[in-house]
Amino acid sequence: MSDLDARIAFFSAQPLDLRNECQRADRDGDGRLNFIEFLALLDSLQTSMPAPERLAGFRIIDADRDGHITASEFIAWWRAFPVRSTRHR
Q1: 30-84 pLDDT, tens per residue?
Q2: Which of 28, 45, 61, 63 could cross-link to 69 by cystine, CB 3.0-4.6 Å?
Q3: Is 33 helix (H, G, I), strand (E, B) or coil?
Q4: Angle 75-81-86 from CA coordinates, rounded to 5°
Q5: Hey, which residues does 33 pair with through a beta bridge?
Q6: Dihedral sign, CA of 60, 62, 64, 65?
Q7: Domain coordinates of the chain in residue numbers?
């Protein structure tokens, strides 16, 4: 495998890993994350994000203000901002 192929494989795997993390955090299995599930997801990703930033992040992601976010919305937010994490950089 070339270096380029290895890099493509690495970055291609990242969304799948995050999607799996989102699915694990979705405790009620409704395909969405509520705020408590979002907090658990951030903990599972080992973020060092302070509580006020966690709340602000959820509010940003939850654009329709229904109290839930999707995995796709979370992943887009995670990738758009350099979230402090020891995993999935």
Answers
A1: 999 999 999 999 999 888 889 999 999 999 999 999 999 999 999 999 888 765 5
A2: 61
A3: strand
A4: 80
A5: 69
A6: negative
A7: 3-80
Give dist(CA 45, CA 42) in Å, integer: 5
The residue whose two tokens read 């989102």 is: 22
Angle between helices 71-80 and 3-25 (to 10 degrees): 130
Long-range Cβ contacts of 14-20 (<8 Å, 24+ apart): 14/88, 15/75, 17/88, 18/71, 18/74, 18/75, 18/78, 18/88, 19/71, 19/75
Protein fold of 3-80: Recoverin; domain 1 (1.10.238)
DSSP H helical segments within 32-88, as ranges? 35-44, 51-61, 71-80
Q: Which residue has the tokens 């994000």?
A: 49
Tell me how far CA of residue 10 lies from CA of 5, 6, 77, in angstroms.
Answer: 9, 6, 19
